[in-house]
């Protein structure tokens, strides 16, 4: 299996996120991608290539232009205001504040407008890193367009919490959504996205919620008790033309392979009957038993079986790296999915 990877991910290295009332070191750190890349090389699963540059156009098919401009210019504006530390928002438009009113001109007001939490710092190199992460995903997608059955986009930063015009949850550009739209723009009739990250893929759900040409299935910690809290319930089935094409599997804290794989089997049945032209996997391995921010109990051999069950669908499959914070283990776990898939 081809892996696409760029060293540019290192340019995004947040100092801290706000956790339990304290600024703490970011869980989403550069060594995550290093660990996965080292395992890809050690297991010799295939060639590793640099991304090509597909420009901003495929990103703008998914993300709002003003949001993209904000991300591109935010750090320079912040530095011009005399700051050198990371940018984190602290004010957000809740209900009955005007979230769709005039966008503030002040940088801090824009930050709260375009972000939904205090865990995704913008740093000096964030723009280049998130741009390259999207190009990593698009290069892997292009490999499948050219006829390959599968590819692995070793994206960092991850993407599935990012919506059309907001960042959050360590995510800035929604890499899985960008490649899904690319498949459709190149002639695919239907694309399925299976999100196996521990957290609900709220951004991806939002982007395709009213559409029948994308089926979204997500297996995740129940939002009643788990981040991102405000989306991901089982009754969210899509709207308008998209009704019936969104499937959420919220599972309780403590879920192990038995409960998790039952949800996977149901999601795979729905994907099979949808008969998509391509399958995009939002591959988070923060479902691991020792993940520091998560509460599922999957073990390393389970990821091999996960890959086997995804392979049984017999679809062209693009793996997009998302979360996973037990840094020593995420290389083994992510690559186990790929090796299970390849059989
Ligand atoms: N106490 C992804 O996995 N909340 N994002 C962490 C820690 C944010 C996860 C709270 C989790 C975001 C791509
Ligand atoms: Zn996650």
UniProtKB/TrEMBL annotation:
Coiled coil: none annotated. The keyword Nucleus does not apply. Its cofactor is Zn(2+). Its EC number is 3.5.1.62. It catalyses: N-acetylcadaverine + H2O = cadaverine + acetate; N-acetylputrescine + H2O = putrescine + acetate. One of its GO terms (molecular function) is histone deacetylase activity. Transmembrane segments: none annotated. This is acetylputrescine deacetylase. It comes from Metapseudomonas resinovorans NBRC 106553. The lineage of its organism: Bacteria, Pseudomonadati, Pseudomonadota, Gammaproteobacteria, Pseudomonadales.
